[in-house]
Amino acid sequence: MFRPIVIVTCLIYLVQAHPDERLSTKQFMAKYGYPIEDHSVTTQDGYILTAQRIPHSPNGQKPTRVVLLVHGMGGKGANYLILGPPDALAFYMSDRGYDVWLFNARGTELSRKHKTLNPNRDRKKFWNFSWNEIALFDLPATIDYIVRKTGADKLFYVGHSQGTTSCLIMLSEVPEINDRISAAALLAPAVFLNLTKSPILTAASKLAGLAQRLLGMFNWYELPMPNSPMLNNILLSLCRPPMDDLCLDIVYLIGGPTSGLVDKSIVPMALKFGISGIASKQIFHYGQVILSGEFKKYDYGSKGNLKMYNNTKPPLYQLHNVRAPMALFYSVEDPFGNNLMMEKLKIFLPNVALDNQMSLPNWNHLDFILARNLRQEVHEPLYELFKKYTDEL
């Protein structure tokens, strides 16, 4: 019964798909004349990541700077390609002389490898990580690789959502990396989530403990589900007229209020280039932040904490160690990064170079990668700030 449904779904997908949806990332890039390379990065704890590089633009401009683009939770490096050229951030920066690198955290589609563990066979061990490990292992390994590969002394950093969380943790816990960051742009910084205005997030965090026990009973540590490409293909086939409005409503349900800034036509591309697997522990860690009101390491309970941290409580992240210039882009209505969270965050950060509260009403969490006017609202001020720090190099 299930197999015919899948076959029919896939046929609908092939008949109705937008031409770009059928393309792989490399085919998509080649269509518009942009080269893309895959680079293998091995972390200190054995995960094998794939970083993707756009070494230059088809306009022939030789890159003089390096930028690393880091995705949010449930996303992947290709998030920065969704809008296509010239407006998606990866293309926008490449066209302006940047050597662009797309980060893919452990567990995402291109980074599901380990030196000894298999993501399907060794689920409990492979998926035993949160954004803490992404910050302490994945990002430093990727930055070290980029610096060695390009010969650059420093690079620029752009992170969205979890990509901001992991940036701040990395610079807090490994402060010497501050010297390798020319400037960082944090899009929707997700730190003090206890100040969220979303009752849905607050309620969900209270159920996290129960959810964690249930998932553990089924040996289920990956979300949305193990081997999720089939789910993505089903979603791609369903998010078409007349269902595309419903899919867009779901996008807004996740990201906050309805801004009206996302074109329905890009929803299939957002599903193709936007969704990837995560460890359930990543969600539970955010839930702990919401409930405790503290930005701290993962809480394993008193006994677990004693074993892990030699203390009954997990340590706080030391945000005052973040010395690199930070640009904050945020919205009042974003459930994951609102103005109240930013006011608290700015108390801890010693070097805020730009404080950019979005002026448009109802700007939501996913607008930072999907909005049709990203170029004017985010990319241009981000680029101008980076130019300032380029001139100082």
What structural keywords apply?
16 helices; 393 residues; two-stranded antiparallel ribbon; disordered N terminus; alpha/beta
Question: What would you say this structure looks like, in words?
Answer:
The protein has 393 residues and is of the alpha/beta class. Helices cover 42% and strands 14% of the residues. It has helices at 2-16, 25-31, 89-94, 123-126, 131-150, 162-173, 199-206, 208-217, 229-238, 244-255, 267-274, 280-292, 301-309, 339-348, 367-370, 374-391; strands spanning 37-42, 47-54, 65-70, 98-102, 113-114, 155-160, 181-187, 222-223, 278-279, 326-330, 352-357. The strands form two sheets. Strands 1, 2, 3, 4, 5, 6, 7, 10 and 11 form a nine-stranded mixed beta sheet that branches. Strands 8-9 form a two-stranded antiparallel sheet. The longest helix is centred in the middle third of the chain and has 20 residues, at 131-150. It starts with a helix and ends with a helix. The model is unreliable at 1-17 (pLDDT under 50). Residues 1-17 form the signal peptide. The active site is at 161 (nucleophile), 334 (charge relay system), 365 (charge relay system). This is Lipase.
Summarize the structure.
By secondary structure, the chain is α/β, with parallel strands linked by helices. The chain contains 16 helices and eleven strands.
